Amino acid sequence: MPPPVVRMPPSPTGWFHVGNARTMLFNWLYARHTGGRVVLRFEDTDRVRSTEEAITQAEDVLRWLGIDWDDGPHRQTQRLDLYAAAAADLVERGLAYPCYCTAEELAAERERRQAEGRPLVYSGRCRSLTPEERRAREDAGLAHVIRLVMPAEGTTAIEDVVRGHVEWENALQGDHVIFRSDGTPTYLFANPFDDIRMGITHVVRVEDLLPSTPRQLAVYAALDAAPPTYAHLPMVLGTDKKKLSKRHGAVSVEEFRDRGVLSQALVNYLALVGWSYDDHTTVMTVPELIERFTLERVNPSPGVFDPEKLEWLNGEHLRALPPEEFAAALQDYLARTGSPLAARPERVAEAAPIVQEKLRTLGQFEGFAGFLFGPVTTDPDAWARVEADPAASQSLGAARETLAGVDRWDAETIHAALAAACAREGLKPRVLYMPIRVAITGRTVAPGLYESLELLGRDESLRRIDAALGRLTG
RNA sequence: GCCCCCAUCGGCUAGCGGCCUAGGCCCCCGCCCUUUCAAGGCGGUAACACGGGUUCGAAUCCCGUUGGGGGUACCA
After folding, report:
1. Contact, A466 vs A400, CB < 8 A?
2. What residue is closest to B24 (Cα–C1')?
3. Nucleotide nearest to A121 (CA to C1')
4. Which of A57, A43, A45, A47 is nearest to A8 (CA)?
5. Is the C-alpha dihedral spanning A68, A72, A78, A84 positive or negative?
6. Which one from A246, A309, A358, A428 is the annotated catalytic residue?
7. Cα A99–A100–A105 angle (5° rounding)?
8. What would the pLDDT profile of A288-337 be if each residue is shown by its tens digit?
9. What does each C-alpha distance from A417 to A70, A400, A401, A431 come to in angstroms?
10. Mean pLDDT, chain A, as a whole number?
11. CA pair distance A417, A399, nearest whole angstrom
């Protein structure tokens, strides 16, 4: 069997959300797993809604995700001549015909059918126009679309890789529009036409396109081409089980990138919506995904996108990074998002090791390590805990004295000294340390205390403890 | 209205007739790690939508019901 050819056909009409990314990913994983080829094709025939920005954005997002392509990017608007020639040929052969019905006539027809409880399909009225009638309409200056002749009887069926046998009644399809009155092709035509011309063997797309399959198969038949293998993926839903949209909060790939989600983590997460490797494997690298991905293991039921699991998974990927790579990713992230912290790469590099275990996203770095870059900003809730602690000033006093007397300023020595102070004061470490942590980091959730002190330096640490002491007693 | 798809814990899922008194992960809740914690460890709550079949045996197969989703455009 020749290697499969798949395509990624984004329509550049808006932002690229995680659902689109998931579809592209499955196509890509399938091709890379099987040694097949990936074609990138922008379906921009909708001139009104397609934008140049969306095209740039889509390419950018795909590149960031590490999803590459072997052919393209093609653009349907640059292939208009091809479609037009094909249309003329179809009309010539009687497989398609011009339709002069107005929007009002069509609406009235639909209403009538609705009332009669019949399917809302076009009656095919213009199909039987005589050449004279056609000429009369042309002469009257009536605009026309081109419709494809659908079989009046019988059924159309596919053996979908994820759904099995699916069948439609041809009579229920209606002659659909394949060319608009401005001469441009609709999705229903351009998409299968290009799939044929580009040698696409596997159409891997979301299930909302499933109902359009019989109409596309009619294009294959009209063009005398062999149909592809179909795999209809389950939808990616928002928490309300509805199609993903902006209402659902952060759902664009870029938003997650800006929050500090690693592309490999997003890819890993997305692979798990609608697909699984086995009953227990969750964390996987991209090469592992490529090696393990098969369409047969795609699950037919829709899935809800869960940002919390994505963040957890991102934490896993962050921790799995070698320290230097983690530091590099961090610096890169800070620079890209325009963080002022990026101006001090040495400091970032020093801070990286003490936060790597803590972060779920790179975006949390500032909250964890900001205290190392400038004056502390104290969290009110954290300070309230200090004030409520009767042993706070005792702890801070003991810490001040201990730290001032430490002979070597490194985490190990600090650790030993503070442990001794706990014993001396008769305080549990958690009690003694809490006020110190708040004093130097301004928060109760922070990197390890000893490492934090070491990096902050003795002078600044003592200054902050003194300040806290002063604020507590004064 | 008509057509199509889907149906296991709150979420993602494993399960393709007996291995299931249904497993894993996220979330949540406890406990532990004589340092917080969003890290780590241990433990816990929690599901086969319902009704009929088929079968010695059904989460798994069939039919129906209900529920959810999608489509029904000169959007893709």
Report:
1. yes
2. A280
3. B72
4. A43
5. negative
6. A246
7. 110
8. 999 999 999 999 999 999 999 999 999 999 999 999 999 999 999 999 99
9. 61, 11, 10, 16
10. 93
11. 9
Strand B and A412 CB separated by under 7 Å: no
Closest CA to A23 of A219, A262, A295: A295
* Threshold 0.90, pTM exceeds: yes
The residue written with tokens 């398609």 in the block is: A96
Tokens standing for residue A331:
């610096």
List, for residues A37-63, the tens digit of each pLDDT value: 999 999 998 888 899 999 999 999 999
Which tokens go with A376? 């502390």
A303 is near strand B: CB distance < 7 Å: yes
A18-35 pLDDT, tens per residue? 999 999 999 999 999 999
CA/C1' separation A388–B40 (Å): 30
**Nearest alpha carbon to residue A445 among A369, A347, A374:** A369
Q: What is the pLDDT of residue A44?
A: 94
The Cα A326–Cα A319 span in angstroms is: 8
3-state secondary structure chain A: CCCCEEEECCCCCCCCEHHHHHHHHHHHHHHHHHCCEEEEEECCCCCCCCCHHHHHHHHHHHHHHCCCCCEEEEEHHHCHHHHHHHHHHHHHCCCEEEECCCHHHHHHHHHHHHHHCCCCCCCCHHHHCCHHHHHHHHHCCCCCEEEECCCCCCEEEEEECCCEEEEEEHHHCCCCEEECCCCCECHHHHHHHHHHHCCCCEEEEEHHHHHHHHHHHHHHHHCCCCCCEEEEECCEECCCCCECCHHHCCCEHHHHHHHCCCHHHHHHHHHCCCECCCCCCCCCCHHHHHHHCCHHHECCCCEECCHHHHHHHHHHHHHHCCHHHHHHHHHHHHHHCCCHHHHCHHHHHHHHHHHCCCCCCHHHHHHHHHHHCCCCCCCHHHHHHHHCCCCHHHHHHHHHHHHHHCCCCCHHHHHHHHHHHHHHHCCCHHHHHHHHHHHHHCCCCCCCHHHHHHHHCHHHHHHHHHHHHHHHHC
Look at residue A116 in the predicted model and tell me its pLDDT: 82
For residue A250, the model assigns a pLDDT of: 67
Determine contact, residues A385/A411, Cβ cutoff 8 Å: no
